[in-house]
Amino acid sequence: RANFTIVGHNLIKAHALVWHLYNNEFRKTQGGRVSVSLHADWVDPADPFSRDDIEAAASTLEFDIGWFAEPILGDGDYPLVMRDGRSQRQHLVWRDSYLPRFTRQERELVRGSMDFVALNHYTTHLVHLEENTDPEDGSELKVQHLKDATWLASPDGKAVVPWGLRKLLRWIKSKYGNLPIYITSNGIDDDSPSKDKLRVYYIQSYINEVLKALKLDGVNIHGYFAWALRDIDEPNYGLYSSNQAAKLSVEYYKLIVDNRGFPASKSPSPKCHQGCNPFYLRKQLLVFTFCTLSVFTATIFLIIYYSSKRCRKYK
Hints:
Layout: H1 4-25, H2 27-30, E1 37-39, E2 42-45, H3 51-73, H4 85-90, H5 104-110, E3 117-120, E4 124-131, E5 141-146, H6 162-176, E6 181-186, H7 197-215, E7 221-226, H8 248-258, H9 278-281, H10 283-314
Parallel strand pairs: 1-3, 2-4, 3-6, 6-7
Antiparallel strand pairs: 4-5
Helix pairs in contact: 6-7, 7-8
């Protein structure tokens, strides 16, 4: 089995060669731009107060995104954390993997061979650094990927976490500078053949986070592309069914495009099933809070009642 890191290494060099070919021979006459799409799901620490989880989230971003982004947008080499043996063992997919090195000439070839940042983003994960119970893994700790049980999820289990996209965009800006960014793929599976309300909610929420990143965070966003056009391209991901029938999400996405933004309030807003309602997602917490307050109120009442009764008894 070929080592996937060697495959990735050759892909980076091949991309750089194509970029220089276009830059030297075709750019002046065609005026095009060339990039490479990065799979870029966001990760957050499972425990935001845990130093281990924070470090695990940071290293996961380097292994997932920095693997391709750092050689091209950074100093021409892989992130330092990827060459750390302890970190490699914690990310079990990378265990026993060989990470090649770029020559000096290859670094010069690779560095800067991207005209814009292209991101494929779908969901967000939580990561937790936990004790490894398998001694054969060669590490005392391992990074575990988790999901928040309160997050809305698709039929395939993909979490719908719109704010993760905004965090990703801010991270790219802070790490690599305010380069032009295109979101080249963003979508969710929805098994409804026509009324794909989950996808309508997904599109609305994720585009809203892109808008926040653009207007509030100053991220240099140039474009957004929903995935996918048809179910035949990827089952249950299409705006159109496999027999070319338009789904509900097509109408809403068309409204956004036609209005060059979200429709005015007079336009019908997309309806969503109860699972999209944040109060529905947290109903157990609300019930628990109500019961707690009720018990607390009853306890205070009884304390006051019996205290006043005792005082009257001794008068």
